[in-house]
Amino acid sequence: MGKPEVITPKHTAKDYKSAVKPVWCPGCGHFGVQSALFRALAYLDLPPQQVAVISGIGCSSRLPNYTACYGFHGVHGRALAVATGLKLARPELTVLTVGGDGDGFSIGGNHFLHACRRNVDMTYIVMDNEVYGMTKGQPSPTTPPDWDSKIAPGGTGINPFLPLAVALASGANFIARGYAGDPNDVARMLVEAIRHPGFSFVQVLSQCITYRPEEKEWKHSVHASPEEPATTMVAAAQRLVGEDSLTTGVLYKGERLSYTAHIHPVQRSLAEIEESFVL
Ligand code: SF4
Ligand code: MG
């Protein structure tokens, strides 16, 4: 027997970086998520032109501008709808949706539920800083009830949205939580998430240094789950009961079949499409 073939990846993390410089605040967790994403894509050796990054609105939703992949910086909360259409029309693309907790769980909450339910083969990365960063610090769906701010003195008193539990109940086929301060760990999760068939959801705790400076303390309090990923919904639900919102790791790997379009994508030239819009 000869030596096993050594495969050298053709891509490195910098191949996915665009010339646009991020406008994120220094120390923002989103830098870590960007780094993790580029490492994952390089590891998977996916050419940038085979990857589409779709987003809504918010600080984290600026990410498509900073990649050399195809990108779509869209409408608030509607990124998953765009991504679903794209994946069904162009199944050969690796489709990633990125955004924040406000965009994904409030404005886009309805789309989140149904994207989990439909189980189209794509990956959704939510950079969760438990605040609306771009619009200057309003409480978001994942903000703790006692977080005191000018807009909600004394806190909202409302229990936070539980993204992993909602994803599990709604049918997501892969569910994980990472921490932006550990980009290697997030990169490993993203590799698994992208490879796993169906709808993969990865919540990344990504500190907003400007409006939630106390999130710097996450580096001392996040902790990895010692458990292996659950393979049944019941086992995953049991894990969720025993873990807190700072527990990282892959929670669930399901076996649902991905949804695929039952109609053939329409093959039309750009000129034909443009002609159909002429008044
Ligand atoms: Fe990041 Fe917060 Fe600055 Fe937005 S406001 S770029 S989330 S640190
Ligand atoms: Mg946010």
Please describe what this structure looks like.
This protein is an alpha/beta fold and 279 residues long. The protein has one domain (18-275): Thiamin diphosphate (ThDP)-binding fold, Pyr/PP domains (Rossmann fold, 3-Layer(aba) Sandwich). It has helices at residues 30-44, 79-89, 101-107, 109-118, 163-170, 183-195, 218-221, 233-242, 270-276, and strands at residues 51-55, 70-73, 94-100, 122-128, 174-179, 199-205, 223-224, 247-253. An eight-stranded mixed sheet has the order 2-1-3-4-6-5-8-7, with helices on both faces. Strand 7, helix 8 (233-242) and strand 8 form a beta-alpha-beta unit. The longest helix is centred in the N-terminal third of the chain and has 15 residues, at 30-44. It is globular, with a radius of gyration of 19 Å. The protein starts with 29 loop residues before the first helix and ends with a helix. The model has no long low-confidence stretch (mean pLDDT 94). Residues 100-102, 129, 131-133, 140 line the site of magnesium ion (MG).
Please summarize what this structure is:
The protein is of the alpha/beta class. The protein has nine helices and eight strands.
- How many helices does DSSP assign? 9
CATH topology: Rossmann fold
Q: What's the order of the H and E elements?
A: HEEHEHHEHEHEHEHEH
CATH superfamily: Thiamin diphosphate (ThDP)-binding fold, Pyr/PP domains
The number of distinct structural domains comes to 1
Largest β-sheet summary = 8 strands, mixed
Order of strands across the main sheet: 2-1-3-4-6-5-8-7
User: Which structural category do the helix and sheet elements fall into?
Assistant: alpha/beta
Radius of gyration equals: 19 Å
- What is the C-level CATH assignment? Alpha Beta
Small-molecule components bound = iron/sulfur cluster, magnesium ion
Q: Write down the overall mean pLDDT.
A: 94
Distance between the termini: 67 Å
Task: Outline the low-pLDDT stretches.
Answer: none
How much beta, percentage-wise? Answer: 15-25%
What is the count of β-strands? 8
Percent helix, as a range, is 25-40%
- Just name the CATH architecture: 3-Layer(aba) Sandwich
